[in-house]
């Protein structure tokens, strides 16, 4: 404390004094100093966080929750968010204990927004719902808690809580819902296990077949997905979800004509959903019918101007038929909506390069190469995103290119900007990745021997 008192002229004097009081469990003094800090600087998430923590320890729950929520508005660090999640749950539990259920639900829901994979958040929410006789919501919350915590003793604990209100997890009527909850958190194999039991118990439930098909799709088992979704369609051919996921499974298994039939049916049933037009356009793109692809992707954009993937695939279709101006316009719009997609930057850079717009090509390739640092090459020379949880069957996760082409083309741009030595380095890097890249090899030889920039090779 003495060290802090010697720095009274420091900007954050009151904040650090308040934090020290809080850590020393002198909460009244902590609150006084943290409030003084906020008077001079009200946009520091740390000050609001410690103020909330001090109020919490002083049993002033209203002020605590308000301070913590204010801290969240100021974009706190990951560590602070974890602490805020904990405190919001604890304050929610305190409100629960004194019967203020509305406040309790609100704070618990906020904790779930911060981390929906913490079983304790869902357990508390389930308890509140049960106490307020909202049993259906309570069952959902407790099931989510059980799925997130795979400890066998905990599972038995939750099963007993649910049995007390007459909900038996092993009852065939509940298997489909349990499978769906596993699906929601991405545990597709567990979802499949319960959904298989559900359709065995009740083979006429179209929704169970649908979710089984979707789970197989997400698990990369497309033929099994198709079988389940065909069965769902037999039971209910007017459910657009059956046709939609059937179309996606056909698309992913390269049965494109059947995919087109399915997506045409989704459009018939739901003509104002841009996703249906996107997937139809995507399918036409994959069979090289680019005019039809452009037609349906343009329709998707007409319905929804805020989807990066619609613009991306439309731009790629224009690029493939060498309409580079239209390609660059749509790829630029895609990049403005989502700036972390490698394919978008590569195609955008290539479009600008082929338009001889070297300045914009340079900046597009810069972004693409920067993003490429988070990518590795697998045995098939596909680029796979390193980040965990990426579905490698999703087009946005696979970059279907010659692995060194962006470096070669970046070298061409640098040469045209008269940055010759840098251009050589990128041709060399392209060859490090792919020693058989003949165009990069010729380009490097060109700069070393002839300096004939006009005849550098571009890789489309």
Automatic annotation (TrEMBL):
Q: Which InterPro entries does the protein's record reference?
A: TPR-like_helical_dom_sf, TPR_2, TPR_rpt, Ycf3/AcsC/BcsC/TPR_MFPF
Q: Which domain of life is it from?
A: Bacteria
Spans of the TPR repeats are 45-78, 85-118, 119-152, 172-205, 206-239, 240-273, 274-307, 342-375, 404-437
The record ties this protein, via SUPFAM superfamilies, to: TPR-like (SSF48452)
Supply the Pfam families for this chain.
ANAPC3, TPR_11, TPR_17, TPR_2, TPR_8
PROSITE patterns from the UniProt entry: TPR, TPR_REGION
What keywords sit in the KW lines?
A: Repeat, TPR repeat
What is the designated name of this protein?
Answer: Tetratricopeptide repeat protein
Look up and give the organism this protein is from.
Brachyspira aalborgi
